[in-house]
Design goal:
The chain has helices at residues 12-15, 73-89, 129-133, 135-146, 206-215, 230-237, 250-262, 276-281, 304-321, 339-353, and strands spanning 2-5, 20-22, 38-42, 48-54, 59-65, 99-104, 113-118, 121-126, 152-155, 170-173, 180-184, 187-191, 220-224, 242-247, 269-273, 289-292, 326-332, 357-364, 382-388. The chain is of the alpha/beta class. The longest helix is centred in the C-terminal third of the chain and has 18 residues, at 304-321. It has a seven-stranded mixed sheet with strand order 15-14-13-16-17-19-18, with helices on both faces. Strands 1-3-4-5-2 form a five-stranded mixed sheet. A five-stranded mixed sheet has the order 6-7-8-9-10. 41% of the residues are buried.
C-alpha cells in the first residue's frame, strides 16, 4: 500500500473525521498512484492517520478507516452490517414498505458507495473507482448480512464514474424478471433499475410524500416534475379529489400512468406532458396544493447564481397561481444551494409574486440517507411547505 503525505498543518480536518482529503492538502508526489488504489494518509511527520481510496481530482482520497488497520472482508461485512441494522432499527422493512436506501456513502462511512434495497433486490452504485474495484467484496458482504432476504444484486455504476472507466451494468448475484414491484407507504410501484433513472426510484422523498398524503384529502393537487408519480400516488392514496401529474418527459408520464393503473387510481388522475415553467404561468384550474420537485438546477458552484434565479422564477409562478389558502410544497436537491439560501429564495419569490406566506414545515432527506456528523456536505435535499394566504 502506497502512502501519501499531507502538507504541514493540513491534518486538522482529518483529525475531525472529515472523510475527504482534497488534492491541495497533499504534499507528496502522487503521480505513480493508480486511481482506485488504497493509500495510507500520513502527516508530514509520518504519522498514519487513515486509509482510503485514491482518485485524481479535487477529492483525492475518500477515507474508509481513520486508522492504519487493514481493509479486508471483515471490514466490508461490518460496515454493511451496521448499515443494515440501522435500517432495521428504523423499521423500514415491513409489508407496507419494502423500499429503502441501505448504504448512503459518507453517511454510512462508505464514501463513494450507494446501495438501494427494493423488496430483496440490492442495486449497487459506485461513485468512485476504488469502490468499483471492491465490488465483489461488497457483494460478498451483502450476501453475508442479508442472507435469505436477498434475491439479487444488480450493479449500476455506468454514468456515475469518469467516462474513461470501463464498467458494465448487470447482475452480480441472482436475477429478476421484470416488471418488479415493491411498496412504499402502502403504495405499489413498478421499479426498473435497468432503464430507470438513478437506481430506479427516488427513495429520498419517502417521508415528504407521506406528509403530502396527510394534507391531501379532498384537495386538487398539481405534482410538477412528477417522474414516476410518487407524490401523486401518495395524494391519491389519501383521498385527493383530483391530481395532475406534470413532466416534460413522455417516459416519465408513461411510468406515472403505469403506477396509477397499478394502484387503480385512474378516475381522479390527469397526466400532462409540458414544460413546468411554461405550464405554471397559466394553470387550467386553481389548485389547492402545488408540488415542485425539480432536478438539480446546479451541480457545481459556478452555476449557483443561475440555479437560484431558476428556483425563484419557478416558485414565483406557482405562488402567483395557487389558490388563496393553498399550500406550496417545494424542494431543491442542488447541493451547492444550501438550506438558508433556498429559504431566502422562496421568500424572495413570495415577495415578487405579492403573496403572503407562512412556513409550515422545513423538509429534508430521510433517516436512511444519514448525514455524517463530520460531513455536512452530505445534506443535499431541502424543502419547504408554505401556506399561501
Amino acid at each position: 500500500m502506497q502512502e501519501i503525505y499531507l502538507r504541514k498543518g493540513k491534518d486538522a480536518s482529518i483529525r475531525r473525521k472529515h472523510p475527504w482529503i482534497f488534492s491541495g492538502a497533499i504534499g507528496s508526489d502522487t503521480s505513480s498512484i493508480e486511481d482506485g488504489s488504497l493509500v495510507r494518509v500520513c502527516t508530514n511527520q509520518q504519522e498514519v492517520l487513515a486509509i482510503g481510496h485514491f482518485q485524481k481530482g479535487s477529492i483525492a482520497v475518500r477515507i474508509l478507516r481513520f486508522s492504519g488497520e487493514e481493509i479486508d472482508q471483515r471490514f466490508w461485512n461490518q460496515r454493511i452490517q451496521a448499515a443494515w441494522k440501522l435500517r432495521m432499527d428504523l423499521g423500514l422493512l415491513t409489508k407496507d414498505n419494502t423500499i429503502f436506501r441501505l448504504v448512503h456513502g459518507e453517511g454510512d462511512l462508505l464514501p463513494g458507495l450507494v446501495i438501494d434495497f427494493y423488496g430483496g433486490v440490492c442495486v449497487v452504485q459506485c461513485h468512485s473507482i476504488g469502490m468499483l474495484q471492491c465490488i465483489m467484496e461488497i457483494v460478498d458482504a451483502l450476501k453475508e448480512v442479508i442472507g435469505g432476504k436477498l434475491k439479487a444484486i444488480y450493479h449500476k455504476s455506468k454514468g456515475s464514474l469518469p467516462r474513461s472507466v470501463e464498467t458494465q451494468d448487470g447482475y452480480l448475484y441472482g436475477s429478476i424478471d421484470m416488471p418488479f414491484y415493491a411498496y412504499e407507504n402502502r403504495v405499489r410501484y413498478s421499479i426498473d433499475w435497468i432503464l430507470g433513472q438513478k437506481t430506479g426510484f427516488f427513495i429520498d422523498q419517502r417521508e415528504n410524500r407521506k406528509l403530502l398524503g396527510q394534507l391531501s384529502k379532498g384537495k386538487k393537487i398539481l405534482n410538477a416534475f412528477c417522474y414516476s408519480g410518487g407524490f401523486s400516488l401518495e395524494a391519491l392514496m389519501n383521498g385527493a379529489s383530483d391530481v395532475y401529474s406534470l413532466d416534460s418527459s413522455e417516459k416519465a408520464i408513461a411510468l406515472t400512468e403505469a403506477n396509477v393503473s397499478l394502484n387503480t387510481f385512474e378516475g381522479k388522475h390527469v397526466s400532462v406532458i409540458a414544460d413546468a415553467m411554461d405550464y405554471l404561468k397559466e394553470l387550467p384550474l386553481p389548485f389547492d396544493i402545488i408540488v415542485l420537485d425539480p432536478p438539480a438546477f446546479a451541480k457545481h458552484l459556478d452555476k449557483k447564481h443561475k440555479a437560484v434565479q431558476g428556483y425563484k422564477r419557478l416558485n414565483a409562478h406557482a405562488l402567483r397561481q395557487i389558490k388563496s389558502g393553498g399550500i406550496l410544497v417545494t424542494f431543491s436537491c442542488s447541493q451547492v444551494v444550501d438550506k438558508s439560501l433556498f429559504n431566502h429564495t422562496i421568500i424572495s419569490a413570495a415577495i415578487e409574486s405579492n403573496r403572503k406566506v407562512k412556513i409550515l414545515y422545513q423538509l429534508h432527506q430521510p433517516a436512511d440517507h444519514p448525514i455524517g456528523a463530520f460531513h455536512p456536505e452530505g445534506e443535499y435535499l431541502k424543502g419547504l411547505v408554505v401556506y399561501v394566504e
